[in-house]
Backbone:
């Protein structure tokens, strides 16, 4: 098996899906000749030509809107938002059109649109290049949200998203792009949407998380085991639809739960998970449910010191897990 | 206004204390610094003074109960500067709220998981010892019982004691007592002795050196001086001050022996504080003579006397127990002629003075009857080696042998 990076896995998934299905095409700002600002679409323009690798104007509303239209027409667009921060001009198209297409047409039309969006901070990107946006969309029924943490998952999940009949918001943590590498099989595989993955079995504290925080938590768990604290880690992988069974199982492993995400705390997705646990797994709880999240501050600071303060890191995660373990 | 009084920190390594006796009852007027209760810790018994003047409102921790340092033990109503009559109702309401919030004990705070498991498995939670924060019973505590790995506490008496150290719990599980046997619960002191001895023997590579000293001169000197000394000083002249003096002077010569072991380093202590093993019928105490190098033989005699008195009366204070750098042990007092003392961690060595016995000894090709005594030294071989220990012991020996019946100017 080849060891490839998170972003190489995305490129592979796109290429393989475009080869497999001629209806699949990509569109976005600089995805063509340039190969994407992060190089996610490298080589696709050369391989598939300008008709299937579309450079668009700097108009996110159009990128999403065109996607909705061509999806209704029978194609399978993969739209790229250059940064997740820029998705807001397309909010209306995504929320009012893409998410509702199947429902309002009474199943006559579906919207097999994938919107890829690099999100997250810690890359010195400041306020317009660091935001986490999952909570903005998680309350919209009809929209699926995927947030993989590893190259294996990102490839398998992107393929499943492209093949899915409904709109998928596909969130790629940009810090993972070149930082995270692992073995990815050369043969064809997919990872089904809506299934969380147990990344580590443990008995003291359960961590429920996704994206970059999975890696931080794995690292912390490795250190804490030396002090006899055994951490159970669940990587959600897909936020909507949520793998409720996996969450409840993970809670029952330890009775002590901490939900970790980089997005800010108030109204963050962690609140939804906490509510689910309180509703469904109350009698498994051995401690108040904890949320470790980004601060309720308008944006990621540019200043490196403040950026570190803003971002969750291994120290903050370790402290939170230790405190909960002692409870 | 009502304030909380908490279990004070009564020594370096003390983490909990048992309320031995309440000296005040709810409703009693308490002055600032006035003792409100007696606390027995694993090191000492001490009186806890009140931090404020006021009226004892409520006793939270009953006599015989052990709680962690910082745990609220009672509440005190203290005077407010200008009580406003109109606001009394509001104030009271506020206070009751505060009371509920302030209680840090988590022993009876059961989480849903704990309650469910207890009910499903019919476990009486009042008999379970919690290992969580504030003594909280955790899900794991209950699961351990379900899996049969942990014994349930007997319902009475020491439900509040901390989880036993491994050595003690192992004994508890393997030794079954017959009905005619008497089961003696561990006192805090006994528990400390047990823990420290296990720690010392497990951690410290003990090496042992024995030498014999001819103390005929010292015996004669004491014989000659003891009546006069008793008359003048009011206390009896024992051998102990002489032993300590010889040790202190030799430690000055070989400071390596006056060391403590700390993780990856050895610390040579500047102050010479001599720990002195004193046994009572039931327990062993090791009070400390601080700066023993700064006092005369007479001063040492008085310190030894004072510490013995305090020990037998149960009046040792925290300060009497702390900071020892080297331990001496008068095993001769009970007739021992050789012993292998266990080091008092983190110290580097311990020296036993064995019984003085008359023995035939060859001196200048003649056989003489001499007063002989064995010196038994245990050393922490991580810190010091045999060579330096031997020379140290030689130095002690020579100092003890230097006394004669007519030695002058030392008392």
Residues:
């Amino acid at each position: 098996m080849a060891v490839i990076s998170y972003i190489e896995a995305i490129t592979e998934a796109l290429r393989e899906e475009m080869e497999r299905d001629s209806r699949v095409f990509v569109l976005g700002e600089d995805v063509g000749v340039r190969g994407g600002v992060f190089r996610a679409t490298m080589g696709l323009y050369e391989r598939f030509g300008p008709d299937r690798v579309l450079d668009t104007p700097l108009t996110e509303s159009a990128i999403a809107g065109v996607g909705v239209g061509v999806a209704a027409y029978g194609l399978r667009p993969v739209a790229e938002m250059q940064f997740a921060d820029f998705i807001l001009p397309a909010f209306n198209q995504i929320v009012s059109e893409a998410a509702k297409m199947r429902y309002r047409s009474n199943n006559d039309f579906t919207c097999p649109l994938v919107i890829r969006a690099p999100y997250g901070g810690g890359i010195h990107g400041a306020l317009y290049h660091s935001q986490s946006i999952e909570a903005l969309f998680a309350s919209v029924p009809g929209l699926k949200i995927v947030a993989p943490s590893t190259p294996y998952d990102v490839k398998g999940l992107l393929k499943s998203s492209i093949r899915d009949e409904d709109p998928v918001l596909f969130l790629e943590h940009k810090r993972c792009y070149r930082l995270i590498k692992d073995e990815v099989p050369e043969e064809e595989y997919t990872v089904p949407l809506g299934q969380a993955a147990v990344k580590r079995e443990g008995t003291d504290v359960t961590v429920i998380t996704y994206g970059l925080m999975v890696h931080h938590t794995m690292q912390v768990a490795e250190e804490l085991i030396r002090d006899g604290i055994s951490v159970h880690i669940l990587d959600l992988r897909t936020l909507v639809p949520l793998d409720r069974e996996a969450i409840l199982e993970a809670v029952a492993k330890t009775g002590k739960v901490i939900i970790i995400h980089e997005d800010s705390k108030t109204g963050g997705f962690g609140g939804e998970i906490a509510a689910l646990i309180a509703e469904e797994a109350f009698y498994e709880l051995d401690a108040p449910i904890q949320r470790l999240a980004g601060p309720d501050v308008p944006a990621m600071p540019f200043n490196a010191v403040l950026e570190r303060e803003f971002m969750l890191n291994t120290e903050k995660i370790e402290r939170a897990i230790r405190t909960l373990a002692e409870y | 206004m009502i304030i909380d009084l908490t279990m004070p920190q009564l020594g370096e390594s003390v983490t909990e204390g048992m309320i031995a006796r309440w000296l005040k009852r709810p409703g009693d007027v308490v002055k600032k610094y006035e003792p409100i209760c007696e606390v027995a810790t694993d090191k000492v018994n001490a009186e806890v003074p009140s931090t404020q003047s006021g009226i004892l409102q409520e006793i939270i921790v009953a006599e015989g109960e052990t709680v962690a340092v910082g745990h609220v033990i009672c509440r005190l109503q203290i005077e407010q500067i200008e009580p406003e009559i109109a606001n009394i109702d509001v104030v009271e309401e506020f206070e009751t709220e505060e009371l509920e919030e302030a209680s840090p004990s988590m022993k009876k705070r059961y989480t849903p998981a704990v309650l469910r498991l207890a009910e499903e498995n019919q476990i009486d939670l009042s008999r379970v010892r919690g290992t969580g924060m504030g003594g909280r019973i955790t899900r794991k505590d209950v699961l351990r019982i379900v899996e049969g790995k942990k014994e349930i506490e007997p319902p009475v008496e020491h439900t509040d004691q901390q989880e036993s150290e491994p050595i003690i719990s192992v004994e508890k599980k393997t030794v079954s007592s017959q009905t005619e046997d008497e089961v003696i619960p561990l006192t805090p002191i006994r528990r400390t002795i047990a823990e420290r001895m296990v720690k010392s023997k497990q951690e410290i590579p003990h090496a042992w050196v024995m030498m014999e000293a001819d103390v005929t001169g010292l015996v004669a000197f004491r014989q000659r001086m003891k009546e006069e000394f008793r008359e003048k000083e009011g206390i009896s002249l024992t051998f102990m001050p002489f032993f300590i003096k010889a040790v202190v002077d030799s430690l000055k010569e070989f400071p390596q022996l006056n060391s403590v072991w700390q993780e990856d380093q050895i610390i040579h202590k500047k102050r010479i504080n001599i720990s002195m093993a004193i046994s009572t019928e039931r327990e062993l105490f090791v009070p400390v003579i601080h700066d023993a190098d700064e006092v005369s033989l007479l001063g040492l005699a008085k310190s030894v006397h004072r510490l013995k008195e305090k020990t037998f009366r149960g009046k040792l204070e925290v300060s009497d127990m702390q900071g020892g750098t080297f331990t001496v042990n008068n095993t001769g007092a009970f007739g021992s002629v050789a012993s292998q003392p266990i080091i008092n961690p983190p110290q580097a060595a311990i020296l036993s003075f064995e019984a003085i016995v008359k023995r035939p000894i060859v001196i200048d090709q003649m056989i003489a009857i001499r007063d002989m005594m064995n010196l038994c030294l245990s050393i922490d071989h991580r810190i010091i080696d045999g060579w330096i220990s031997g020379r140290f012991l030689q130095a002690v020996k020579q100092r003890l042998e230097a006394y004669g019946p007519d030695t002058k100017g030392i008392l």
